[in-house]
UniProtKB/TrEMBL annotation:
Organism: Kibdelosporangium aridum
Keyword Transferase: yes
Protein name: L-2,4-diaminobutyric acid acetyltransferase
Occurrences of domain N-acetyltransferase (ranges): 9-159
Annotated EC: 2.3.1.178
Amino acid sequence: MSGKTFGQAVVDIPSTSDGAGMWRLARDSRTLDLNSSYSYLLWCRDFAGTSAVVKIDGEVIGFVNGYLRPNQPDTLVIWQIAVSDAHRGRGFATALLDNLVRRTGARHLEATVTSDNDASIAMFRALAARWGAGLTGNQLFSADQFPDDHAAEFLFRIGPFLSANAPS
């Protein structure tokens, strides 16, 4: 669903020209693990089909990047999702996730969150509810598995997504 208009914003498939904007949003979020700027450019080249951006007047104001699990190709893994501070609370994260679920045809979605990330937890619970899909959550990585200071990550698995249950 490339180029879907959402109010004055457009949800689209990212291109390498969007990589710098995605990196800036991740940096400015102060919550995401910041990857190298190179990785966002590469992500836009190699995983554009499983990622999305939302733009206003050509400026990236939100993004989600993901990939299909190699051993479970019907499962979309969300790596990162961010919306600029100025545009939060307006449904852009919802539009990005719904766009990806529809566009990829994924039957399941996985994402990891820390236990203190209330906004992401609420967002993924709402996604499951919107699609009438189940949601399970279990610890994936404990804090002591990380070599640096990092909280435990919990895996949310949502699905199955059924087209009959797709929100309008």
